[in-house]
Amino acid sequence: MQRKAEKFIVVGKFIFVIVIIVFIAVGLKQSAVIVVVIVVTVVNVAIVAIVTIVAIVVVIVVVVIVIVVVIVATTVIAIVIVVVIVVVVVVIVVVVSIFIVVIVAIVAVGVIVIIVIVVVEQL
């Protein structure tokens, strides 16, 4: 799932680059190009930052919980707790990945719509 998310992010960035090239090629007003570039950059940075922060938080939480469980007890209950926590973490990561993919898709669609509108106006 994580790999799929990464692929989508790469595709999203690729689309953004094409979008910028198209905007410049169409010879739009400079301000429009700048706005799009800024928006695209901010969105990209935000996505990467969110992914990174979530990953770090998840890792820290898992490590802390595992340490606590190991210190408290090595009973059957403790093992069950660890398993449950790991499952929960995996689910969270998958959900976050899907969420990121959806965001990238929405942004990409929005940008494509803008391009279509601009190109149509040029005609």
Q: In a nutshell, what does this entry contain?
A:
With 123 residues, this protein is mainly alpha-helical. The protein contains three helices and no strands.
Low-confidence stretches: none
| Content-based structural category | mainly alpha
SSE pattern, N- to C-terminal: HHH
- Helical content class: over 70%
Number of helices: 3
Q: Over all CA atoms, what is the radius of gyration?
A: 21 Å
User: What share of the residues does DSSP label as strand, in percent?
Assistant: under 5%
Largest sheet: none
Gross geometry: rod-shaped
What is the CA-CA span between the terminal residues?
42 Å
Number of domains: 1
Average pLDDT confidence is 71
Count of strand segments: 0
Notes on the structure:
The protein has 123 residues and is mainly alpha-helical. It has one domain (2-122). The chain is built from 3 helices and no strands. The protein starts with a helix and ends with a helix.
